[in-house]
Design goal:
Elements (H helix, E strand, L loop, with lengths): L12 H12 L7 H5 L2 H20 L3 H24 L5 H15 L1 H4 L8 H18 L15 H14 L7 H21 L2 H21 L4 H25 L9 H16 L1
Helix pairs in contact: 1-4, 3-4, 8-10, 9-10, 11-12
Keywords: Hydrolase
Pfam families: MazG (PF03819)
Family: Belongs to the nucleoside triphosphate pyrophosphohydrolase family.
């Protein structure tokens, strides 16, 4: 019988969690579902858990954040155990790598550099260090190393930031606004005369330029869209409530009525 003392030790800390995952992945005695998973099948859960962390922070639900951070931590442990099973690396290697990286990227805290510099200067120094790290990995292209798996809007901003560092950028937001007008016209033309594939391409171009405008205006497009989603959800919920007061559901209403109630919901928020 295996020793379960660490598994059931509430003060077991990180070693306890690592051991739990090791046991879950044990090919003879583990959980069939956990055993069947690989990097690819777990990756979507990792992304989902990261968003749930962000959601808890957005709602300022700190107790829920505690649980969501645990769920996200489990994802790292899960991936590390899969890697360990394949003989690639283990969780201690993951911890060592990130600790070494943080020390190397903060010479003003852990080295001889002065801490007397602005956050802007620190950002420039950080990018210089990261550029050296990419060069060491033979990532010589300006856009090398921008993760493909990032949410598309965030990746667009990161790609544009990289290009901007070498001067490939509009000088100000007014030029981006002009480009948005141009891309919107191209999308309209494509929708009227061209294939669905071309429409999709032009739509992507418009979103890409919108992300660039967000960067110039110092707006995070992901956060802005998340806020817009929340606003839409809140206002539509109010529309449903107003319809309910009339003894109706949205399915029993029409666009004109719901649009009027939407305007009423907006007006309520402005009071």
């Amino acid at each position: 019988m295996p020793d379960d003392s660490l598994i059931h030790d509430p003060k077991g800390g990180m070693p306890r969690l690592v051991e739990i995952m090791r046991r879950l992945r044990d090919p003879d005695t583990g959980c069939p579902w956990d055993i069947e998973q690989d990097f690819t099948t777990i990756a979507p859960y990792t992304i989902e858990e990261a968003y749930e962390v962000a959601d808890a922070i957005e709602r300022k639900n700190w107790q829920e954040l505690r649980g969501e951070l645990g769920d996200l931590l489990l994802q790292a442990v899960f991936h590390a155990q899969i890697a360990d099973d394949k003989g690639l690396f283990d969780f201690n290697d993951v911890v060592t790598d990130i600790a070494d990286k943080m020390v190397a990227r903060h010479p003003h805290v852990f080295g001889d550099e002065s801490r007397e510099k602005s956050a802007e200067q620190q950002t420039r120094d950080w990018e210089t260090i990261k550029a050296a790290e990419r060069a060491a990995k033979a990532q010589i292209g300006v856009l090398d190393g921008v993760a493909v798996g990032l949410p598309a809007l965030l990746r667009a901003v990161k790609l544009q930031k990289r290009a901007a560092r070498v001067g490939f950028d509009w000088p100000d937001a007014s030029h981006v606004l002009d480009k948005i007008t141009e891309e919107a016209a191209e999308l309209r033309e494509a929708s009227e005369h061209l294939s669905h594939e071309k429409v999709e391409e032009e739509f992507g171009d418009l979103l890409f330029v919108m992300a660039n405008l967000a960067r110039h205006m110092k707006v995070c497009p992901e956060e802005a869209l998340r806020a817009a989603n929340a606003k839409f959800t809140r206002r539509f919920g109010r529309v449903e409530a107003l319809l309910a007061e009339r003894g109706k559901t949205p399915g029993q209403s029409d666009l004109a009525e719901m649009d009027a109630l939407w305007d009423a919901a907006k007006a309520e928020e402005r009071r």
